[in-house]
Amino acid sequence: GAVVSQHPSWVICKSGTSVKIECRSLDFQATTMFWYRQFPKQSLMLMATSNEGSKATYEQGVEKDKFLINHASLTLSTLTVTSAHPEDSSFYICSAPQTAGVPETQYFGPGTRLLVL
Amino acid sequence: QKEVEQDPGPLSVPEGAIVSLNCTYSNSAFQYFMWYRQYSRKGPELLMYTYSSGNKEDGRFTAQVDKSSKYISLFIRDSQPSDSATYLCAMGYNFNKFYFGSGTKLNVKP
Q1: Which residues of chain B are within 8 Å of residue A49 when distances are taken between CB atoms?
Q2: Count of alpha carbons within 13 angstroms of residue A45, beta-carbon side
Q3: Which residues contact A21 (CB under 8 A, 6 or more apart)?
Q4: Which pLDDT does position B96 carry in this prediction?
Q5: CA distances to A23, A64, A116, B100 from A82, in Å
Q6: Disulfide engineering: B9 pairs with which of B32, B35, B85, B104, CB 3.0-4.6 Å?
């Protein structure tokens, strides 16, 4: 299967600071990547779709000025949580669809755990 | 109504049991059906993938899709303690947007 990495795997920051999370497709190119958020014991909640060369598409209720997404290249998307607050503490996971191989489906990164103090 | 419904469990079984996990869905346009396994504090990993209807088997795992009933299943034979995880069903009409179930937490007791 395809490999997607995320960095960092966990981060602790003070309230009011900004945190950047990277998502990379290691062995394939992805014009689209997805960012999810997962609260404890809950399923994945799609936050936004990251598009290479154009603006991200945000799901309803997700603040685009709060969660900045940049799809810098065909293998890298970044999510920046701006002015983070304790309620932003969560598990953030990215995924990328791999269409050239078998199966064609989405592959997930290992996730980034964010704790805002 | 949610697009995808999945019993959150938890489901607790003894080692060696056959496990049945299920999801129902409402959108008849869905063509891609996946099962992901997620260990605690890790990202989901693809376990089984089915396009359209039918069955698919991979080792101890069997995935079934019944589009007429809008119902998918994952069977685990000879379950092992290492199978203890949360199992997420996912589906969509293309692989660019998936709809996830809430996940079923499985505990296989030695």
Answers
A1: 96-97
A2: 14
A3: A6, A7, A8, A11, A78, A79, A80, A81, A92, A94, A112, A114
A4: 74
A5: 17, 10, 12, 27
A6: B104
CA-derived radius of gyration, chain B: 13
How many beta carbons lie within 10 A of that of residue A46, not counting itself?
17
Residue B11 three-state SS: strand
Give the 3-state secondary structure of residue B82.
Answer: helix
What is the separation of C-alpha B31 from the centre of its chain, rounded to a whole number of angstroms?
15
For residue B96, the chain A residues in CB contact (below 8 A) are 32, 49, 97
- Interface subset of B 77-96, CB within 8 angstroms of A: 88, 90, 95-96
**Per-residue pLDDT at A100 exceeds 80:** no
Tokens standing for residue B87: 């199992």
What is the Cα–Cα distance from B6 to B22, expressed in whole angstroms?
6
Q: Give me the pLDDT at residue A50, please.
A: 93
CA distance B22 to B19: 10
Residue type, B39: Y
Q: What pLDDT, on the 0 to 100 scale, is given for residue A103? A: 65
Is there a contact between A93 and B96 if contact means CB atoms under 8 Å apart?
no
**pLDDT score, position A101:** 63
* Average pLDDT value for residue range B50-69: 92
